[in-house]
Batch of 4 targets.
Target 1
Amino acid sequence: MATDIFGKALIDYQNGNYTEDIRTFSSLEEEDKMPLPYLFRTYEEMPLLEQKALARSSGTVLDIGCGAGSHSLYLQNQGFDVTALDSSAGAIETCLLRGVLQTILGDIHSYNTKKFDTLLLLMNGIGIVGQYENLNSFLAQLKQLLRPKGQILVDSSDIIYMFEEEGDELPATHYYGEVQFQMEYKGQKSAPFSWLYLKFEDLKRAAEAQNLKCELIAKGEHYDYLARLSPAVYS
């Protein structure tokens, strides 16, 4: 748990030891906070895009990057067969403490045990790709986890507005949506990690290269969107 900064914070909050939020530092030269109560939000407190994704979920569901398990809990309470997956041991322990019945501690990049009707990647879930060059192989991996008529529901944001507002030039060496992050909680820092923010048109292009149909389901209030990917032969 010493290096699982995210998981340690979740367990503290779950156990009533909430004294501070997670601090985040990014290559965009921004310091921010990740409020822990928000990670434990109810359905009513979720953004509209997340509510729309949950409403479109069907069949067996894999909640990828489940965090504290708020999406999994909601679907479970609605009668869905849902499994929560996260690479953070603390996140999975938190899910179990909150009552999520089925969990997987593991990395989605190598998971291949079971197929699902719905794959959920919410809270900018596509971010776990890290770098744009990994997008095609990541979508190919997700496709292998889909049942024949399955779907991938994913949200992200196009952060090009951040460069336009500041008048900055786009990076010449990498995709502008690749951001380096580091988290800090109670004096401990995580290892730096990459997170991807993806323009819808770029997601669609990569999806179609994997013979996946990519539909724009809804746009949010701040350059964010919800998309649905499905095997093109069944669309």
Note: The longest strand covers residues 146-157.
Target 2
Amino acid sequence: MAAKILIAFYSRGGATEALARAIAEGAAAEGAEIRLRRARELASPEVMARAPGWAESAARMNALYEAPSETDAEWADAIIFGTPTRFGSVASELKAYIDGLGGLWFQGKLVGKAGSVFGATSTTHGGNESTLISLYNPLAHLGLVIVPLGYADPALFKAGTPYGASAVVNGRDIKEPSADEMEVARFQGRRVTRVAGALAALR
């Protein structure tokens, strides 16, 4: 039976989206059934208008991906959260979705499922590791079995973090994740799918 993978992410410029798609590719290579979901904006149209391209990018992605729901999380054997860094921490858009999972938490519906994280930032040393580690806290509270990457694949010696796939994309000379960063993301999809399948059998 195929593992069911929810990839719930927020992306503004497309870097985190690209990592999400690469993770989905890796999961699909292991036979997973995948739901890609994008958290929605919390900022007002006036705030979005002050960042060139934000509204247009959001409209494009919202047309491609449904918003994540409680139903998606309950359906999944694994949940992989993705976020850009916001001052060294998770984006409020993704955090709002996580905060909305309280009903499932109360019922213990997510206990024993696999959980993993990934992210992107626009500056070198801009908070990828601190952001990913901060997401481990809600994973633990939800009862998810945290799946880090460690250095279990040669790709991790070139890019990413042992906590999850990551990218540094500044939108000027670096506009998308590198080939090495995308390979780490694909490995994450494969790894989480394998662990999710094993955990599903135990549940």
Note: The first strand starts at residue 4 and ends at 9.
Target 3
Amino acid sequence: MLEIALLQLRTPASQGSALQQAEPLIREAAASGASLIVTPEGSNLLQRNRGRLYEVLASMEEDEAVLGLQALASELGVWLLIGSAMVLRSDGKAANRSILVDPRGRIVATYDKLHMFDVDLPTGERHRESSVYEPGDRAVVAQASGASLGLTICYDLRFPALHRALARSGAGILTVPAAFTRPTGEAHWEVLLRARAIETGSFVLAAAQGGLHEDGRQTWGHSMVVGPWGEVLALADHDDPCVLRVSIDLAEVGKARSAIPALENARAFVGP
């Protein structure tokens, strides 16, 4: 069995404050026996004002929260997936980056969010993630605690082809750290997570941001773990910071994919 913990956070707008919020929950998760801990999107800071964001943005190697989380992983001897950190790239652009840290505190894999959340919601909310962040250009499967993780971030959830490609490349667990808005979260969060699990026969780990944040945004919370048959194995049915614990049996991935071999049965086609 693989012992996993998801952190649900309400990340503030500075790295130091973000680390202070996450640290006790990570310690709680490690003390409960988790060997793999997953945090949400934007675990180092959430700041939707572009000017203020760039005032505090730092490189991955210099970000106070990232460095502190690496040190925690080393101290506690756990695998830590920083669901994402908002960091400065070497070319001066910003990246929304998932960072996998091993039990020695070393960064062993990164993934930059592929799909930018550029939408006009029926509620009147307008989001243009591409005006701040540079999208990634590659999918990533990484090894952690004896499992193969397919890394995604938030809006990536709406693109089934990415998750299918990760599963076909060996991922038995899909990670979906997120900061879903309340309207989209209430309408689509659970059904999309369950759909991605069913389509690929994979576990889905969805650590989420929740509540009213310092920068004024509101996120849905409701972190959850979904099994490869589409069943919800664990759920935080609220938007408050918490630790969500679950034990999973990776053998269930093979059982689900044998029962419904959709990955093998998929065919290329022409048109329309």
Note: The first strand starts at residue 2 and ends at 8.
Target 4
Amino acid sequence: MSIANAFRELRKRNEGALIAYVTGGDPSPKHTPRIVKALVEGGADIIEIGIPFSDPIADGPVIQASDVRALNAGTTPNTVFEIVREVKKTVNIPIVILTYYNIIFRRGVGRFLESASRSNVDGVIVADLPVEEAEEYKNHAEKNGVDTIFLAAPSTPLNRLEKILKMASGFLYLVSVFGVTGMREHVAQLTMQTIRKIRPYTINRVPLAVGFGISKPEHVGSVISCGADGAIVGSAFVRLIEEKYGDFNGLLEELTAYAKIMKLATKLRSQFD
């Protein structure tokens, strides 16, 4: 299922998307497919898998620690592509990978996106690629049928947002706060204001998904009820993996249970469609 089709089906059901992030290869590559399956059983609509990187500048301490665990377990970009292929044998939902441009550059933009396409990756997020420098990447992605998911922030001016929207497909990733990923107590008022500001520009063009700091059901409910099409949850799931992977079967049960709670909170799309 494509990302566009996933959002289309959710809209018919009056639901937002639960987009669940995990780091590929954390705590080891053999565990990730089962972790993904547990999240899908809990109701995750789209899975985002991070390629572990030694300098993940957009990520807070929880995801940084997961990168270290995954790298120590021998995870490479090829490993993550293999994980996606394995997952796609049993899971019929979109899989997105998150990476940094250094990884793409070292492999070669064309080769990287060809590998992604052959591995059944539906979309790619490049956390540190400015839209102004993304033309080559966008061309290769389109050639290989891979969605290009770009980031916007509360500080993104509207003229730059328009450039981003022209390049974006799959969904627009709205960074909800200034700073890095990580769990927070509350959804900031700034986040709600930014959703309301940006939504008129995304509607009927590309779905709007909100991430960074979304770690509780009430956070998910807040951003969905405010008009977002999806909520991206990462650090909360990654923290569970860090805390519980010694009891792997128990971890899988907890991931499924927490995903169910978070998914339930996406069913609050009221007046926006």
Note: The domain at 3-264 is CATH 3.20.20.70 (TIM Barrel).
